[in-house]
Amino acid sequence: MQLVLHLIIDYSQNAFVPERNISDNILLAQELLVGYNQARLPPRSTIKVDIQKAYDSVEWDFLFEVLKLFNFPVRFIGWIEQCVTTASFSISLNSSIYGYFTGARGLRQGDPMSPYLFVLVMEIWTTLLRHRVQHDPNFQYHWKCKEHRILSLCFADDGLLFCKAHIPSVQVIKDTLTEFANMSGLKVNASKIQIIISKSGQHEKQQILNLLGFQEGSLPVKYLGVPLTSSRLTLADCSPLIHKVDELLRGKYKIPRHRFILWLAILEKLSTMDKPWSSHAETGCLFVMESLKKLMTTCSSIVVYTSVLSSNSKKNQISLAVY
């Protein structure tokens, strides 16, 4: 199945598809959000979507119809059906195991086949959206998206939807989400979904919010672990990361000490690059030099601390040697 995914899955999806990278989504999303703080540019809107209990909610009948739609062999679909539907589960309660019972829907977390099946299911979302846009003359693309027909970016159950900030376009997206939920069982998490409207689209903002019933988001917004802004990343945008590292060092979270050595080695390498943002962007993380310097300062104390406590540890000695 993995060998043919790149032939089936739209380029707006990058999760679990060979030769596609998470950084493609992040960098394109960042490019499209540039200028959201400027009133002189066309009105735009971005909807950040989170699927509620994504793996657990997939309807089996829908999944098997999707496999048929993509012309997988009948025998192969039968194998998939046996793997998905015959699994049994038990519950651990007060140190006692109860069960077994069978499921009625969903994909198993940790099953190596589940990510590929989920990507195929999400491809229907993309297909439905493209079909509605094609047949609705009132829909208008997000700025810079019409030429390449960019409507969405999806990485597993995290998605971004793009359109012009006006009622007919937003209505198309809402109808697509509703139709997809009715077909697949995958519903958006209403408490987490956000719509970000550019400064030039503020005159229709309240109508759009009333139509969708979603909360209004603002920039910077975190997507796939990276803050996205309407301009360059600043030190303030990276401050949550620095704060979290500081809490880790203070012992609020438990983490093996040798990992700090690895982090420090990475930060040291980044801080010596001429353009650390361009190289490190390939892994999906974007930093500014000021944040790297602060992280280096925050982490430096752990080197001495770790080397003293683990002088007899061969593993940590190797980590220190690499650094």
UniProtKB/TrEMBL annotation:
InterPro entries: DNA/RNA_pol_sf, RT_dom. CDD domains: RT_nLTR_like. It comes from the Eukaryota. Residues 1-228 form the Reverse transcriptase domain. This is Retrovirus-related Pol polyprotein from type-2 retrotransposable element R2DM. It comes from Sesamum calycinum.
